[in-house]
Write a structure and sequence with these properties.
Nucleotidyltransferase, domain 5, 11% strand, 7-stranded mixed beta sheet, alpha/beta, 13 helices
Length: 300
């Protein structure tokens, strides 16, 4: 159960005034002032280094425990969705090289994750299993993983989350700020992005040992050609997201006429997948945080 965020009456109003629960577009612009034709766009030939511009106003307002949250594993067709929550000590120096995990190599992420763990005030990992993804849908399962990650870091004053506003999120985690492209622009979120990616990649590598032939150690469960051909050849595993069937068929393209998924034409009910899919998150606890000594949340 999540630890309630710390509250101090007038403190909350101060935090809200300096960093309200709103969406910041790239560059911190308000959506109403967005230039025509704007969007994520290219960040240039050199990946952008995230800054502490979102954390500093909160620290100055007295919010010592500012949490950055990011998730990994929304688009893959198998495996749990994983989220990380990171609290950086106020006014600490940034770790050189930390940025959006998607712009880093696997070796860079593996080097940075232990440094983030060592310097952070708190790091928590949360996940939602394949069973939960199929039952709730990926949107709600992702937010469940985020809440579980936040619950692992204890009391907090404010949450910085990558992406758009989330329905009812403030009621569940307390004051928060949604930042579009947050993993590229907010240092604390970038730290969470790196940790979450390392943990999930480790999970998929472990599952690849259990289910060889799908290339999960390379494709992390994304619907690559190698992965689709393996599904055609070997069928689905208990770790495939069967509710993603329509997406899988779309990605399969020319294979639509083939019985790629056997008897999995209809998504199974919760009872059919709860057992084997629960291993997903158990593996997370037992294996995935090796060397990082991270806390991991497991469904009750």
């Amino acid at each position: 159960m999540a630890t309630p965020p710390s509250r101090a009456g007038s403190f909350d109003s101060t935090v809200r005034s300096c960093c309200p629960a709103r969406v910041y577009l790239p560059g911190g612009r308000d959506p109403a002032t967005r230039r025509p034709g704007g969007g994520r766009g290219r960040l240039g030939s050199v990946p952008q280094a995230p800054t502490l511009r979102y954390e500093r106003p909160l620290w100055r307002a007295g919010a010592a425990r500012v949490v950055g949250v990011d998730e990994v594993g929304v688009a893959p067709t198998c495996g749990a969705v994983v989220a990380a929550a990171v609290i950086i000590r106020p006014n600490s120096h940034r770790i050189r090289g930390v940025r959006d995990s998607k712009t880093l190599s696997a070796a860079q992420r593996e080097r940075l994750a232990p440094l983030i763990q060592a310097r952070a005030a708190a790091v928590g990992i949360g996940a939602a299993s394949v069973a939960e993804i199929d039952r709730l849908n990926i949107y709600h399962a992702t937010h469940l993983a985020m809440r579980r990650a936040i619950a692992r870091i204890g009391g907090h004053d404010h949450v910085l989350v990558d992406g758009n506003r989330i329905a009812n999120f403030e009621a569940q985690v307390g004051p928060y700020t949604a930042i579009v492209d947050g993993d590229a622009r907010c240092y604390t979120i970038a730290c969470a992005s790196v940790v979450a990616k390392v943990v999930r990649d480790r999970m998929m590598a472990r599952l690849a040992d259990r289910y060889p032939g799908y290339g999960w150690e390379r494709n992390q469960g994304y619907a690559t050609l190698e992965h689709r051909q393996a599904i055609r050849r070997q069928g689905l595993t208990p770790f495939h997201r069967r509710s993603f069937l329509a997406l899988q068929r779309t990605l399969a393209g020319d294979q639509l006429g083939l019985d790629l998924f056997g008897d999995a034409a209809e998504p199974p009910g919760p009872g059919a997948i709860d057992g084997p899919s629960a291993i997903d998150v158990s593996d997370l606890v037992a294996d995935l945080a090796e060397g990082l000594e991270l806390e991991a949340a497991v469904p009750g």
